[in-house]
Amino acid sequence: xxxxxxxxxxxxxxxxxxxxxxxxxxxxxxxxxxxxxxxxxxxxxxxxxxxxxxxxxxxxxxxxxxxxxxxxxxxxxxxxxxxxxxxxxxxxxxxxxxxxxxxxxxxxxxxxxxxxxxxxxxxxxxxxxxxxxxxxxxxxxxxxxxxxxxxxxxxxxxxxxxxxxxxxxxxxxxxxxxxxxxxxxxxxxxxxxxxxxxxxxxxxxxxxxxxxxxxxxxxxxxxxxxxxxxxxxxxxxxxxxxxxxxxxxxxxxxxxxxxxxx
Length: 262
Ligand code: AMP
What we know:
Layout: E1 4-6, H1 9-21, E2 26-31, H2 37-49, E3 52-57, H3 67-71, H4 77-86, E4 91-93, H5 97-101, H6 118-121, H7 125-140, E5 144-148, H8 152-164, E6 170-174, H9 194-199, H10 201-209, H11 215-224, E7 228-237, E8 240-249, E9 252-260
Parallel strand pairs: 1-4, 2-3, 2-5, 3-4, 5-6
Antiparallel strand pairs: 7-8, 8-9
The chain binds adenosine monophosphate.
């Protein structure tokens, strides 16, 4: 079946409820567009576990603390739709700002998870994420929703929201997809120069090198490559420990993380 586009909440809810009444399991992949293989791995994971896959494309202004970052966020809807079609995604939901704002929001106590790392450096970011993902869940009523481990803290935030609100949605985390040199794929990578993309491999090298290469030396290596570090932190989530790195290269904000095995 060719990819079908849906633009309104009414249409999407009608569609999803009818599919579910036929016993079909709905997998949902929310994105901000300018899609790449990282997003496609979420679509593929959804296909493994569900009968129908719905992706969404919506760039949410409320999760950007920097208006320049929002305005510079890359867009190519036609290319996105071709890529989704090529990867046999069934539906893409592309709502207008008005459609999104017609949906309710919920307040969730993130119990401090929104105060560290991304939350510390991007005030209000997770409030925006919770707001929009809750709205998209309301519009799509999925059985399962898929999120990348690239945004691991976001994945934890979404799981917390689902638990706090007792939403009947299973959250699945999907491993990070990387460029050949190890740079985590990101829509923002196109804003790097060719040289910057090559230099950005230092982030994954640093993640892989830790703790054999200790914090001070690792930070120096990042700085030598032109990476302006925001944070370099280890956190435990449930049963695993991860090292998280975030910062700027050529003015482009990049984040990455790795599981630390004892
Ligand atoms: P975004 O469009 O950046 O909001 O990302 C949409 C979803 O794709 C989020 O759940 C991201 O974590 C996930 N994602 C983005 N890049 C990657 C990647 N390189 N590998 C795996 N998942 C990713």
